[in-house]
Design brief:
Elements lengths: L14 H28 L16 H4 L7 H35 L6 H9 L6 H12 L5 H6 L11 H26 L4 H9 L4 H12 L1 H16 L3 H7 L10 H11 L3 H26 L10
Length: 301
């Protein structure tokens, strides 16, 4: 008796959209609609305490490039502080986790314990980390100066304030990048290392010509998200230095908060945030273009 042909299941054309619907609903509710609404607010003189919110077009954007306006100096000082922190912190948050990942990817007793130890600070909230370092680094009652006998103004003078903010951020967040790197290292075929060893490659040559090329896409991801995260730094400066000394650590997000919720100029604050978003978008594109693979690397120098 001839067997019947296999039955082909047919799905309705809307089936994929049904599976996507929950995600799309959440995305549109918490990302899509707020983004559109924020752009609309940036085109108005928007004071949420007043009923009238007149349309001003691109005036909120133009005043950010007018050196005679009150918002100009405030906004660009915040952008400068954000840039300083990003440039100072990103190299450490890229290089140190990579070195730790290479070490923790080796087989040794207690490897899982040390992985957990380095990742553990990342689960803490910014409020916990900020208050912790506020007491540790306080020039008068802080543990560091108390135990060492130093009189370093860790959070009240420059460049110590930046050093403190960068150090606490590196300690707090390096575990996340380390885990990402470890996952990337485990995807590199061990045959490549074996072949390099047979050809006489040293440990440094293996790292340079096997590990780094194999981690290129992972590094693009890590550098991009680290730049974005550093450029959105807020809690550390707000809790530890309160934007000081002066306004030297008053980052862009602190300026947006004061402009929108403090001065009731939501339109101006929205325009500032979208300008920062454009800058970060350009930086991300440049980073991807600069790090993308142009040719297949060889391990031999």
């Amino acid at each position: 008796m001839a067997s019947s042909p296999p039955r082909i299941r047919r799905y309705a054309p809307w089936t994929p959209y049904a599976f996507m619907a929950p995600f799309l609903l959440i995305f549109l509710t918490f990302v899509g609609f707020p983004a559109v609404m924020g752009l609309w607010i940036s085109l108005h003189d928007w004071d949420y305490m007043l009923e009238a919110k007149p349309f001003v077009g691109f005036d909120n954007y133009l005043v950010l490039f007018d050196s005679s306006s009150a918002a100009f100096e405030m906004f660009w000082n915040g952008m400068r502080a954000t840039g300083i922190f990003t440039v100072a912190s990103v190299p450490f948050l890229v290089a140190i986790p990579l070195a730790l990942a290479v070490l923790l990817n080796r087989r040794f007793k207690g490897r899982t314990f040390f992985r957990a130890v380095f990742f553990m600070p990342y689960v803490l909230g910014v409020a916990v980390v900020g208050l912790l370092f506020r007491f540790i680094l306080d020039p008068n009652i802080g543990i560091v100066n108390g135990l060492t006998g130093w009189s370093i103004p860790w959070i009240t003078a420059q460049p110590w304030a930046w050093i403190s903010l960068v150090a606490m951020t590196v300690w707090w967040t390096l575990g996340f990048n380390t885990v990402i790197y470890i996952a990337g290292l485990q995807d590199i075929p061990t045959e490549l290392y074996d072949a390099a060893k047979v050809d006489g490659a040293s440990a440094w040559q293996q790292f340079r010509h096997v590990t780094l090329p194999g981690m290129r896409m992972v590094m693009i991801f890590v550098v991009t998200i680290t730049v974005l995260a550093s450029a959105n730094m807020f809690g550390q400066a707000d809790l530890v230095t309160n934007g000081g000394p002066g306004d030297s650590t008053r980052t862009a997000l602190m300026v947006f908060l004061d402009e929108g919720l403090g001065a009731f100029r939501m339109g101006s604050a929205a325009a500032m945030s979208y300008l920062l978003a454009v800058v970060l978008g350009l930086v991300s594109i440049i980073n991807v273009l600069a790090m993308r693979e142009r040719r297949r690397p060889k391990w031999r120098s």
